[in-house]
Specification:
The protein has two domains: about 170 residues, D-Maltodextrin-Binding Protein, domain 2; about 50 residues, no CATH class. It contains eleven helices and five strands. The strands form two sheets. Strands 2-1-3 form a three-stranded parallel beta sheet. The longest helix is centred in the last third of the chain and has 16 residues. Belongs to the bacterial solute-binding protein 1 family.
């Protein structure tokens, strides 16, 4: 970023667009960002453009009738179409970043460890919050579930499982887990522990996830949403790979989700 004349990461999507254009090389050896059909990013950006994906009860689809959503997808598609963002799949964005093929990637905080391994000390890098859109700043909070299946196990085994869950999500354990993995701790109280305060003071590049908590939102906690995530990701890939126009893609996606979300 400094080589290109920038002294801070993009705070807004307009700044992001300016930066990825400046950081893309005409010979194709480097592009501004490597981003795939990221459903979590799309969900956050819908809100950042003033849109809504579903109604508050999660039973009605809204986004395909909202011009704000089309404006957002068109904004991103223009960056893909002109080569400023490289469409990537799987975890290839980590390799791109580690090889200095791109300046930006967008991923969860849990990706920190893997990206750092890809960078392998070749250059300095840091996390930053997702840029803000015209109508505010949002990010999506999510994580893995912890479930105890107890029906076929003895009472002793069930108690042991419950004791283990209570142990590993206690403040100190979850603080250590966060420090070592890049995931956010499962308890906010972990942030008050001296070990965690010392860690963040010594590693300010790891603060972005915590700085984003105040504007984090969740995705629909419904049985249909896993299917919706698959459909959204597939449609974004079609749009950003120029297989379908943003307008037609959003229309197609809305009809698909509306067939099972109602």
């Amino acid at each position: 970023l400094k080589e290109a004349g920038f002294d801070h990461p993009p705070r807004t999507w307009d700044e992001f667009a300016t930066m990825v254009k400046a950081l893309t090389k005409s010979d194709g050896s480097q592009w501004g960002a490597s981003i795939g059909g990221d459903v979590d990013l799309w969900y956050a950006m819908v809100h950042e453009w003033g849109g809504r994906v579903l109604t508050d009860d999660y039973r009605n689809v809204l986004f395909d009738k909202d011009p704000n959503v089309l404006n957002m997808v068109t904004f991103m598609n223009d960056l893909y179409k002109n080569g400023y963002i490289h469409f990537t799949t799987g975890y290839n964005y980590q390799t791109d970043f580690g090889n200095k093929k791109c300046a930006f990637v967008i991923a969860s905080t849990a990706s920190y460890t893997y990206i750092d391994q890809a960078v392998a000390g070749k250059f300095k890098w840091a996390q930053a919050p997702i840029p803000a859109g015209p109508k505010g700043q949002y990010t999506v909070m999510y994580g893995t579930n912890v479930v105890i299946f107890g029906q076929k196990y003895s009472a002793v085994v069930q108690r042991g499982a419950w004791d283990f869950v209570k142990w590993f999500d206690a403040p100190y354990q979850t603080a250590r887990w966060s420090i070592d993995t890049g995931y956010l701790p499962v308890r906010k109280s972990a942030l008050d522990l001296p070990v965690f305060k010392q860690f963040l003071a010594s590693n300010p590049e790891r603060k972005a996830g915590f700085d984003s908590l105040n504007f984090a939102i969740i995705q629909p906690p419904t049985k249909e949403w896993n299917q919706a995530r698959s459909d959204i990701g597939a449609e974004l890939q079609k749009i950003y790979l120029q297989k379908i126009s943003p307008a037609d893609g959003i229309k197609e996606l809305g009809a698909k989700l509306r067939s099972y979300i109602h």
